[in-house]
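Model it.
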Amino acid sequence: MENQAILRFHGATKRFGSFVAVDHVDFEVHNKEIVAIIGENGAGKSTFCKMLTGVHSIDEGEMYFEGKKVNYRNTTESMKAGISMVYQERNLVGMLTGAQNICLGSEPGKGLLSEKKAYDRAMEIRNKLHLSIPLDVPVEELGAGEQQLIEIMRAFYNHPKVLILDEPTASLGEGEVEPFLAFVREVREKMDIAVIFISHKIEELFAISDRIVVLTDGKNTLTDSVKNLTQIQVIMAMLRTGKSYGRVSVMEKDFSRLPTVLRVERAVYDGREHLLDFQVHKGEVAGFYGLVGSGRTECAEVLFGLRKADKSYEFNGERITKCNTRDMIERGMIMTPEKRANGMFRSLSLVDNICNLFLKKELAGRGAGVLKQVKSREFAGRVLADNDVKYRAPGQAISSLSGGNIQKIIIGRSIAIENISLLILDEPTNGIDVGAKFEIYRKVRQLTDNEDEEKRIGVVFISSEIDELLNVCDRIYVFADGNIIQGFERKEFDKQDILSVAVRGKKTDE
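Modeled.
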C-alpha cells in the first residue's frame, strides 16, 4: 500500500435543507486497498460516495485525488479523472447485449455505431478482468451475478483508478456471493486500483476489506484496520446515539388470549421460497426491521396483493391464496406506500386525495352529483380533523402541505375504512420531523390500544429505524435475504441484539 492516499476527503459535509446527511467526514483510500463502508440504513454511505463522483455537490470539506484538490461537478468529470461507481440499482438495458451495455454512451467509432469495435473493446475489458461472461447475448438472459459483473466491466471502460461498489452483493444469490468477492479480491491484487466497498453484510466486509469505516447518522464513528477489529466493535459503532423520539406508552397485553389477525409461514415469489414465520394479533404492533435488500417491503407487497406470489396465509381466519389489492381492502387490510409520492396525486386537492382512493363506496361511484360532493367534503373533513392535519382549505393541493401532514392524510384516510383490521405502514416516518413522527407513533398506539377491544386493529410497522421500532412496537421481526430470521418480544428488546441479527443475517444463538 502506498503511503499517500490516492483519494482523500477532509470534512466532507452534505446537507439537504436542514438535514445533514454527511457530517464532516474524514476519509482516505490507498492504491491496491479495499476500504469497506458500513452503517445502518440512512447513515450517509451512498450520499458520501455520490459526493466523490459528482452526483451530489460538496457543501463543506476538501477532496483530493492523486494529491490534487478537486471538486467534480458531475459523473462525467469524475469518470474521466478515474473514479467509477457501480450503483446498487441495476442500470443495464435488458434488450442490449453485454458488449453494447459496456460501451453504452461511449461507443467507439464515429457516425453509426461500430458493433465490431464495441465488441472488441468489451472483450479487451473482459480479458483484462479474467472473466468468461458471454458478451453477445441480451443481459436480461444473464443471471444476477453475471449482470453485476457486466456493470463492473462497464465501470472499467474508462480505466478507473478508484472503483466504488455500492451494495454489490445485495441482489446476488447465495452461491454467487463468494465467487464475486473472490473476483473483487483478484482485481485488487492484479490491477492498479483502489476499491471502496459499501455493504450491510458485516461478514463480507471482514472477508474482503483491509480497513472498515463506520458511518452513523452521517458521522464517521470508527475507522480501523480489519485485523484490529471485531464484529461486535463494528456493530457497537453503528448503534445510533443522540436520536430523540417522543416516547409513547405501550400497554402490556396478553396476546395469547387476543384474536390472531394475520398468520404467515412461507411464500414463493421472485423465483424462490421465503420463510416468513410470523403473526399479528388484534391490538398488536409488529415491527419489520432489516437492512437494505432484506425483503421487508416485498413481504408486505405479497400480503397486500401488489406482488405476484404462490402463497397461502391466514387473514381474519380466512385462508388467502389468491388476491389483489382491492380484494384485501374489502377484507380489511390496507398498506401505505414507502414513498409518499406513490400515495398521493400531487396536483389534486385534499378532498380528492382522501375520497378518490376507494375508501367509501358511496364516494367512489360514478357521477358528480351535489350529494356526492357534499358527502366527499364531509368525509374529508372528518379525516382532516381526526388526524389533526394543518391545512388552509380542503380544496388546496396536497403537495402544498408539509411531509408530516401529507403522511397524516395517507394514514388517516386508510384507517377511515370501516372494516379495517390490519394496517401495514411502510416507512411511515421517512423524511418527516421529530414532532410529526411522535404524532404518528401516538396514532398507531391509539389504533391498537383502544379501550374498546372490538375497535382495536393490528399494525405492521416497517422501519429502518431501530429506535422507533423499540419505541412503538410490541414485537419486532428481523428480515435478512428475504426471510424472517428471528422475532423479539417486547421483553426481549435489545438494540444491540437486533442490529447484530440484521447485520450478521442469522439468529443470535447460531
